[in-house]
């Protein structure tokens, strides 16, 4: 039995109280763990399934210290946990997947440089710290191109597309002159993701590659099996493992990729990584031996990883805003597994739940 | 959409805070419900996954009234909730599966009389309210026989076997002269159970019949498929539905039966019913479309029932007392799905968790 592993009954601290924290807490409870959720928002859905809650800001050192003192390991459900918060906590107790993975994913520039250092393709990019930088970058990368803030972007926030004829200064203005990255436009056939889990002892497992469709920059569906050649899928899995190993990662890592078709061949371009359980892995709750949530908890607890094999074909569809009003019809639909997050208020664009439509494995 | 159904975000009250309450709360959370657990024991495992908790006795009317006022429906995880408590609460809010089902299952004599009135076989029995009654009953039913208290028995508690030569007075003494029932001995080949779920609209579904093995009066394993003829299985399912309908039952009902072999034919004898989710249904978490916990929650919430079909063969093994110390090996075992209840203290005879061993469906 490895030294680092947590006994049942131990307490897992989770930074962030959204639906990912909620599903992590449920998975942890099924293995006999207690969860303590730390979140600034007193109305967090994860509070409803946790043994303990702290409502405080990520800068409140007294609250953070008390939290760290009450738990046996800390993880997070979103990558924008301030690095200073993670470092402060990690003086007291292990913070996993790790401060390094957080840092790499919080800054689009570092993230791309890491990929490049690992020999992994990313879209052509250039750092933008001034309007001059932006104009030079547009010259080099061409249009259309996408200007993205280096930090704190998600679900399409903090980015603007620059088309031929668009005013570069207006785009720079739109992002508030923040440090940014310009990305060249990638003409991709499909978006896919790799969900890798890596244990405390370095062992890894990867779920089947997932094909993702976005609407309005928000994930709409994830489908397994993905329409991808076996050799490209193998490459996507290997690439995910390479990133996890480079970051000495512990837990579940999501790698979002573009699948580019060039003549008869396929090529993968990494778009971004998320150092946490991921919306594109929700199908694993009903389509795989063990869910991404369970495997994340097992990994950070130092437990053996559980079966990542897909036993069914699956299509996960997010329920955004008013989509969740159809809960009664979804609850009655054969083969549909409904998951709702218990959010009190439905707002446009808000993720309220998801449904996994499961069918016999063919692919 | 039926009138009685609860919207996501509603609160489900659960009387009792053990592992059944815990697994019900987790299933409820996955459908977007909040749970409020009411239990006299401040160390209850279900508290760790609930949005709200009340620690108070089942006789505390102020606490009960506040509880009823805070929830949209009430259910229970054990059948020994005092009938007065259930009646008190049901003046304020629906208590399901229902006061009638509670009453029927709390008294072995009423239970057997109900079965008989439905034309369902039970072991030969006689009411025992005095030593004279007991002696007359032994004369009529023969030995061995089992003397059971009418109320508050579980896991073999509150019963004593009377063998040829045993002193009847000593047996009566052992049960504290409480109102009892003497049951004739049934020589059965196997024990099986039917798990029936019935919705608010009267619709029913039944899981595959489960074969159960007890050790020291505590459930040891449950196996599906059971070694039972298809026609006997169909009879077991039909009998479960008949009982649920007679009780105007809402939720999951467990019916424990003996399978008696007579020459080449099989006969079913009902042993007892449990008006709640049941240990012999834990395999449904990993072997069926939806678990008994989810279907119980759906039923009491007025939702459509979910798929009860078995997709895999399964053997559920309870982890009693020190069995749970093997958690690391169990967590590493391929095909084994480990469930732990988060109980702080392991005591002999205490249910600490269970493991579902899943394999490809053959039977």
Radius of gyration of chain A: 20 Å
* Major sheet description of chain A: 9 strands, antiparallel
DSSP helical segment count of chain A: 11
CATH architecture of the largest domain in chain A, please? 2-Layer Sandwich
User: How many strands of chain A?
Assistant: 17
- Given the C-alpha coordinates, what overall shape of chain A results? globular
Poorly predicted sequence stretches spanning 5 or more consecutive residues of chain A = none
Total number of distinct structural domains of chain A = 3
Helix percent of chain A reads: 25-40%
What's this model, at a glance?
The structure is a homodimer. Chain A has about 375 residues and is of the alpha+beta class. Helix content of chain A is about 30%, strand content about 30%.
């Amino acid at each position: 039995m490895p030294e680092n592993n947590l006994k049942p009954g131990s307490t897992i601290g989770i930074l962030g109280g959204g639906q990912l924290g909620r599903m992590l807490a449920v998975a942890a409870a099924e293995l006999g763990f207690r969860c303590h959720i730390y979140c600034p928002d007193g109305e967090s859905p994860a509070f409803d399934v946790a043994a303990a809650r702290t409502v405080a800001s990520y800068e409140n050192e007294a609250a953070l210290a008390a939290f760290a003192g009450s738990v046996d390991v800390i993880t997070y459900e979103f990558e924008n946990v301030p690095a200073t918060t993670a470092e402060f906590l990690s003086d007291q107790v292990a913070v996993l997947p790790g401060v390094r993975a957080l840092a790499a994913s919080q800054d689009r520039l570092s993230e791309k440089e890491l990929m490049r250092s690992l020999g992994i393709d990313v879209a052509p990019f250039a750092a933008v710290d001034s309007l001059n930088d932006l104009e030079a970058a547009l010259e080099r990368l061409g249009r259309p191109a996408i200007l993205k803030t280096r930090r704190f972007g998600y679900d399409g926030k903090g980015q603007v597309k620059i088309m031929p004829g668009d005013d570069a200064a207006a785009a720079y203005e739109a992002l508030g002159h923040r440090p940014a990255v310009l990305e060249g436009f990638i003409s991709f056939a499909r978006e896919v993701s790799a969900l890798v889990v890596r244990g405390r002892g370095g062992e890894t497992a990867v779920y089947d590659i997932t094909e993702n469709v976005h609407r309005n920059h928000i994930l709409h569906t994830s489908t397994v099996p993905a329409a991808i050649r076996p050799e490209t899928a193998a490459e996507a899995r290997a690439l995910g493992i390479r990133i996890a190993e480079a970051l000495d990662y512990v837990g579940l890592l999501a790698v979002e990729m573009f699948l580019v078709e060039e003549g008869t061949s396929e090529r993968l371009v990494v778009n971004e990584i998320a150092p946490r359980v991921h919306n594109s892995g929700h199908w694993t709750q009903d389509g795989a031996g063990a869910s991404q949530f369970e495997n994340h908890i097992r990994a950070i607890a130092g437990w053996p990883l559980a079966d990542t094999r897909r036993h069914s074909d699956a299509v996960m569809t997010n329920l955004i805003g008013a989509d969740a009003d159809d809960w009664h019809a979804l609850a009655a639909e054969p083969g549909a597994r409904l998951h709702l997050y218990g959010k009190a208020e439905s707002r446009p664009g808000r993720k309220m739940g998801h449904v996994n439509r499961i069918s016999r494995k063919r692919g």
